[in-house]
Amino acid sequence: MENVAKACKLTQPGEKLMAAKTPRSARADIEITGPILGTPVLMLAEFDLRAQGYLTEEYFVSGDAVSYQPVGPLSEDGNWQVAPAETAPYRTRIVVVRPADASKFNGTVVVEWLNVSRGIDFAPDWICLHREIMRSGFAYVGVSAQRVGLEGGLSLEPDNLPLKQADPARYHALSHPGDAFAYDIFSQAGMIIKGSATGKVLGPLTAKRLLAIGDSQSAIFLTTYVNAIDRLARVYDGFFIHARFAPGAPLDGASILNSPTTMPQSARLCSDLRVPTMTVLAETDVIGANVRGFFHARQDDNDLLRIWEIAGASHANNYLATVGFIDSSSASIPELAAAYAPTDDFFGMKLAKAMDYDPQQHYVMESALLHLDRWTATDKAPPKGPRLETIGGDKDRPLPQLVLDANGNAKGGIRTPWVDVPIARMSGIGNSGSVAAGLTGVTEPFDHTTLGRLYPGGRDEYLAKFRRALDSAIESGFILPADRAEIELVAAAMYPTHGV
User: Fold this and answer.
1) Alpha-carbon distance 226 to 255, whole Å?
2) Does the predicted TM-score (pTM) go above 0.90?
3) What's the burial of 333, exposed, middle or buried (CB within 10 Å: 0-12/13-18/19+)?
4) Phi first, then psi: what are they for 409, rounded to 5°?
């Protein structure tokens, strides 16, 4: 994908944006350089975003960031008090993807805390949500908030190259003082975006709302951000915490891939949330995968919190690994169906079983994004979602387990036609074979006999039942009406035409 910033003039390095006064003891002088000529190092798509009406630009951002230290105990209730501690200089980057036509902008910017678990800056929530981002006219900003993405460090895939190694000529001047400062770097990124009316990172666009989003490790950092930092920073208008586990990230800069941690093993979100917050989870996240599962941090919904647990979904899936990169608005149904085919390859890592192909998660995520945006704009809250049914997780049976139906799929949770009218057993747990296998879940396609028992009328009966289940999911608010036609066509294309 070629960056349209090639046609743009480079901002002079000395130009500065004076940030709005924050609760910290000093103002933040934030320097913005860009748009930077050339192509950013960030996997966004295998199709041309310009053809979808979107421009991609990269900016370098520098200033002084603060770290935070606890004031009092960090308990499992998430009601954490912190105070500014040390100050250190930083220079990082942000990647902006925005509507080329300003009249198409809906006023909301989705700001992703880029994920570094694979040893690189990765944008899983852009991949998951890009269709809805572009369809509804959101702008998007990916923030390189953590040190590993720039400098390298502990990761699940140490062979991947951080920015300064992937393109030394472009990124050699970037510098990160450590993840203790990541929270304030993320705050300052939001301040920059809100100040873009001065003609900075959003071009001619003016942000009305900022939605902070993060997946997996980034979601764990956002958990700590919401509990400890947000009441001080007051930058974001809503939070979308996707695929977190039980704990929050450390405040002292330690890697969450290390143990022990200075944080409690489980952390609920604080009781005094400032803005609407959504948490969307797969089965893997609830039960756990080499990390204590969200089950141990479950809490009730309230006026500013919604928690959705998706039945049949996994932490990582075919959409994240393959489908999302080709899923433009013009991708053909056969191409999408083929990309969902069960596979035991996850970014080159061999799995013992085919991973959970999980078509439902990105559609549910799209609905969650629109609900959160409307919630921040109008105070109309999203629907409440039932929790996945579990047993155990107590002193008698410490490890929670999912309750399964007769087809081996989970009961409870957000229901979609893929679990209520299945052609396979889909689970967020149970794989092995590589360091990331515990995150991928499994797909076990039904054999011809099982399909014949479930749908004696064949493909036509399957599709009729699928449509009724899809109607129910749309009426419940968990899938968008705009996705109905595509979902029906993909379901028809994926139904087995012969014994398996």
Assistant:
1) 19
2) yes
3) middle
4) -100, 155
Q: Please tell me the distance from the alpha carbon of residue 472 to that of residue 71, in angstroms, as a whole number.
A: 47
Cis peptide leading into residue 35 (ω within 30°): yes
Amino acid at 208: K
Going by C-alpha positions, the residue among 205, 198, 240 that lies closest to residue 57 is 205
What is the Cα–Cα distance from 310 to 333, expressed in whole angstroms? 24
Q: Mean per-residue pLDDT for 16-26?
A: 35
Asked if 255 contacts 248 with a C-beta cutoff of 8 angstroms, the reply is: no
The residues, ordered by sequence, that sit 6+ positions from 310 with a Cβ below 8 Å of its Cβ are 280, 281, 282, 283, 360, 361, 364, 413, 414, 416
Closest CA to 283 of 432, 395, 431, 439: 439
Q: What would the two tokens of residue 436 be?
A: 């990331």
* Tokens 């093993």 sit on residue: 265
- Cβ neighbors of 348 (< 8 A, separation 6 or more) are none
Mean pLDDT calculated for residue range 120-134:
97
Cα distance between residue 323 and residue 327, in whole Å: 6
**pLDDT tens for residues 52-65?**
999 999 999 999 99
Q: Please name which of 186, 190, 280, 268 lies closest in space to residue 242, comparing C-alpha atoms.
A: 280
Short-list 68, 93, 88, 202, CA closest to 145: 93
Pairing of strands 209-215, 108-113: parallel
Count Cα neighbours of 423 within 13 Å in the Cβ-side half-sphere: 25
Containing 444, the helix (H) or strand (E) segment is strand 442-445
CA distance 430 to 296: 19
Q: How far apart are CA 340 and CA 374, in angstroms?
A: 31
**Rounded Cα gap, residues 138 and 238, in angstroms:** 14
Distance CA(88)–CA(432), nearest Å, equals 41
Q: In what order do the strands lie in the sheet with 54-70?
A: 16-18, 29-33, 54-70, 82-99, 139-143, 108-113, 209-215, 238-242, 277-281, 305-309
Q: Which residue has tokens 């041309």?
A: 48
Biggest CA pair distance of the chain? 71
Across all residues in the chain, what is the average pLDDT? Answer: 91
DSSP H or E run through 476: helix 459-476
- For 464-499, b where at least 16 C-beta lie within 10 A, e where not — what string? ebbbebbeebbeebbbbeebbebbbebbebbbeeee
* N-terminal to C-terminal alpha carbon distance within the chain: 38
Tell me the per-residue pLDDT of 303-351, one tens digit each, with 9 for 90 and over.
Answer: 999 999 999 999 999 999 999 999 998 899 999 999 999 999 999 889 9
